[in-house]
Amino acid sequence: MRIGIMGGTFDPIHNGHIMLGEYAYRQFDLDEVWFMPNGNPPHKQDNLNRTDAKIRSEMVALAIKDYPQFKLQEHEINRKEISYSYQTMEYFHNKYPEHEFYFIIGADSLSSIESWMKPERLLKTCTMLAAFRDEMNCQSVMKKQIEELNQKYNADIRLLNTPLVDVSSSQLREDIKNNRPVGDKIHENVIDYIKKHQLYC
Questions:
Q1: pLDDT > 70: what percent of the chain?
Q2: Could you write out the three-class secondary structure of 174-188?
């Protein structure tokens, strides 16, 4: 099977995440996309302020329940240690040798990937899909960067073309805190969950 991996804090998960998974699924003929909430990510500076991992996982489950091709993957939230992408992908690569993995990232992550822990090991385990948005990024710059990374690491990085969605989890938390409407940006089941548990107030 061809499996897409969508990692993220998902605090909260929003329609931009769902759209990214959908475009990867369609453009690269994937069989499934695994949405994987981070448990203890090394790159987040506000780890102490993030919502509990189980709560974020439950919101992901609610957001993707209408998409049979999307699955919740709790590998990282079940780990107490810091979760490095290369370790997670090596684990999947070894546990599921019959699968091909496609690691989905944004353009900003691509530009900083060499600062990640052991990128050379991560890039050996999967095809990297880097989301490209015409409105925000210069395609020629991304193509040049991908070409250089592919050559340097013997990697397989490809462009994932997606429309611009002006939404972020941090802005949504601020909107919810200030009682601004977010109904067009978050699945209604997730909104109900946030209200029920009084999150981000």
A1: 93
A2: HHHHCCCCCCCCCCH
* Average pLDDT of the chain to the nearest whole number: 91
At which residue do the structure tokens 């939230």 appear? 77
Tokens, residue 24: 């990867």
Q: Which of 101, 73, 148, 74 is nearest to 2 (CA)?
A: 101
Cβ(47)–Cβ(11) below 8 Å: no
103 DSSP β-pair partners: 5, 128
How many Å apart are CA 162 and CA 22, to the nearest integer?
Answer: 10
Cα-Cα-Cα-Cα dihedral of 19, 24, 27, 32, to 10°? -110
Band of residue 140 on the pLDDT scale cut at 50, 70, 90: confident
Residue pair 6/35 in contact by the 8 Å Cβ criterion: yes
Higher-confidence residue of 96 and 136: namely: 96
Under a CB-based contact definition with an 8 Å cutoff, are residues 166 and 189 in contact?
no
Residue tagged 């989890």 (tokens) = 169
pTM: 0.93
Cα–Cα distance between 36 and 76 in angstroms, integer? 7
The pLDDT of residue 23 is above 80:
yes
